[in-house]
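Holo prediction — D-mannonic acid.
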Amino acid sequence: MKITDVEVLVTSPGRNFVTIRIRTDEGVYGLGDATLNGRELAVASYLRDHVAPCLIGRNPFQIEDIWQYLYRGAYWRRGPVTMTAIGAVDMALWDIKGKALNVPVYELLGGACRNGVMVYGHANGQSVGEAVEAVGRYIDMGYKAVRVQAGVPGLKATYGVGRGDLFYEPAGEGLPSEDVWSTEKYLATVPELFARVREEYGRDVHLLHDAHHRLTPIEAGRLGRELEPYSLFWLEDAVPAEQQEAFRIVRQHTTTPLAVGEIFNTIHDATVLLRENLIDYLRMTVVHGGGITHLRTAAAYAAVHQVRTGCHGATDLSPVTMAAALHFDLSIPNFGIQEYMRHTPETDEVFPHAYTFSDGYLHPGDAPGLGVDYRDDLAERYPYKRAYLPVSRLEDGTMFNW
Ligand code: CS2
Ligand code: MG
């Protein structure tokens, strides 16, 4: 079998997505997600202008060799654009192999280690009261785990709140919007939020929270300690993760489980965190973390250190990533939880898929390959619109972390 064509497809059914479709001389094709929120066209060009010519004529079954070729051959290693491009090609090659051998990808990855993939939903509200009510709606839908985010009194906007109920799309058309942030105001609200949720729903439901890169290590230690009575499943992105060692301080002050890694793009971003057990869940994802092939390396390294996975799964990762993530999640021994931010109905129509939700779990289905497709006729209706994630400044105007 030989690769004969590589298409880079850009569509915007509710938000921008970039998809690679790799065709072969035997008629089998594979799909990969290449979406990098706010920098989509950079990855599209990396694939179209630099990667695609090198793939033509190659044997798509040689997944590992092609991964090594694209990683080592780039010379300029790592980074979100490069690793998203490699991740997209990798997903498509696993899709081709599964289809050609007529098996779902998880069977190629060693088979299922579990019956289903526990997911978490995203309850949010402008006020604590609204957020508490939203948690109830997710519990009623059967979710076993719910992330809870609430607005902060005195701040017009904050991460994770608004722009949809079942999904949360932070990117907006035009130039980046500017949010104003106050850590003090935020830290004053979070403990009350979880006290109210536990009071209302008890302790059976797993609760998660995303601090979204906004705290210093000691602030994260303080928040983690204040949340200990509410037994969170995890506190995510408590501290910007470039400085892995900073988590040593957080770990000294709290037993609240910590999760980080959605912005990581290779295992090298996480080795200190894992080797020193500074985190409990690694959030790297298939699309931004170099594909299924590299994520298996990261998961194996994490498993040695008793760290579990908790893959990123936001609206800006397409159904192709969700499908690939579920095959990966099903097959690894140290699976923790999968984020499941639903997509818009238009997105689900452009990307018909085999994965299904039931009673708080997702399953990838048993269609050959990844079990997801791409409807060109519908995709054409949604042309690309440049969109950016917001930026964030402190109340005095200082540039900060969104
Ligand atoms: C978030 C994301 O899902 C999460 O945990 O951190 O919503 C993130 O803000 C977006 O994926 C950025 O594009
Ligand atoms: Mg996050």
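READOUT: Residues 210, 212, 236-237, 262 surround magnesium ion (ligand 2) (CB under 6 Å).
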